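Problem statement: downstream parser choked on a complex file, so we are re-checking the raw output for the pyridoxal-5'-phosphate run. The parser issue turned out to be on our end (a line-ending mismatch), but while we're here, posting the original submission so the record is complete.
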Amino acid sequence: MDFLPFTRPHIDEDTIAAVGDVLRSGWITTGPRCQQLEAELSAFCGGRPVRLVSSATAALEMALLVAGVGPGDEVITCPLSWVATANVILKVGATPVFVDADPATRNLDLDKVEAAITPRTRALIPVDLAGLPVDRERLYAIAGKHGLRVVEDAAQSMGASWKGKNIGNGGDLVSFSFHANKNMTSGEGGCLVLNNADEARLFEKLRLQGVTRLPDGTMDVDVLGGKANMTDIAATIGLGQLKQLAGFNARRRQLAQLYFQHFDRELGCDLPPADFEQSNWHMFQPLLPLERMSVDRGEFIARMKAQGIGVGVHYPAMHLFTLFRQRGHREGEFPVAEDIGQRTVTLPLFPAMRDEDVLRVCKTVSAVLRPVLS
Ligand SMILES: *Cc1c(COP(=O)(O)O)cnc(C)c1O
C-alpha cells in the first residue's frame, strides 16, 4: 500500500505553469509577484498592511524589533510551539518567559499569563497551535490592561477565524508562515501584518539591509537591516495557494470530522479540541495513553510507519531543550505542556487525502495500540 505521509503540499498545474512563466521572465527575485501577493494578503486581512519575508521566523524576529523589544525586556510565550517562537525572543536579546498550556486548548493558558507579567514584560507571543485560535478578546484585554505589545504567532492559523473574521483582520502584529507544511505554502516564506504605514516602512527596511531608495536613484541606510526578502518564484506559488486556501481548509475540516467519527474511543487517547468553526485544522493530534502502553511513543511511530503511515511529533515542550535548560529551565515547571509534549502525535491530515485514508489511519492506530494496552 502507498505510504501516507503526515502532510503533503498540494500545488496545482496552473501554479506550476505560473512559476515557469516567472522563471522565463528575466525577473525572479522580489518584484511584481511579491507586490501582488502583498496586495492580496492585505485584502485577506481587511486592508491592513502586509509585508512578505523569506520565513515566519524572520517575520517574528523583525516584528519584535518593530515593537521595540530588545535587551532587558521579557516576552511571554508558551513552551508548546515550534522552537522558532522562543528563539526569536533570544535573537533580539530579550528573555523568553514561558507560561504553561491550557489542557483544553493546548494553547497559552490565559488564566496564568498575568502572574508572569513583571515590570520588564514588553510583549506577548501567543501561538495558535494546530490552527486553533487563542481567545483574542481575553488576550487583548490582558495586553491592554498591562500596556503590552502582541506579536501573534499565527504560523499555523492561516485561514482560521476569530468571531467570523480571518486571523490577521484584527489585533496587533500578526505573523503567518508559508513553510511547505503549512496550510498554504510558498515553498518557504512568511509575512507580517502590521498596524500602519510607518511600521510597514520600518519592516521593509529591516528585511532588506535597511535600505531606502531615494528619488534621484541613489540610496540611504539609516537602520541595521538583514536579508529576508521573498522571491517572485516563491510569491507565485503563494498566489496559487491563496486562491485555494478556503477550499483546502474546508477539506481539512471535513477530514478532521471524519477522524472524530471513526477514531477508536476505547484506546484512551485524548482527541484534540473539537472546534469545527474557527480552527483551520492545521494538524490532527491525539495524545497517546502512554501510562497504559507497554511501548513508548517512538515505538508507536515506528509501528505506524511499518504499516505505511507517517506520524509526526509537534512538539516536545521546548523549555526542556538543552538551550533552555542551560538558561535554568527544568522538568516539572510546566506540567501541562510537558504532558502534552510527551504524548502528542500528529496523524496524516492534508487536503488531498481521501476519506478512506482517514479510515485506514484509524484502523491502523487501533491495530497498533490495542495489543500494547494494559
Ligand atoms: C512553522 C512555524 C514557525 C516558523 O515558520 P517558518 O516559516 O518555518 O520560519 C513559527 N511558529 C510556529 C508555531 C510554526 O508552526
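For whoever reads this later: Residues 55-57, 81-82, 84-85, 127, 153, 155-156, 177, 179, 190 surround pyridoxal-5'-phosphate (CB under 6 Å).
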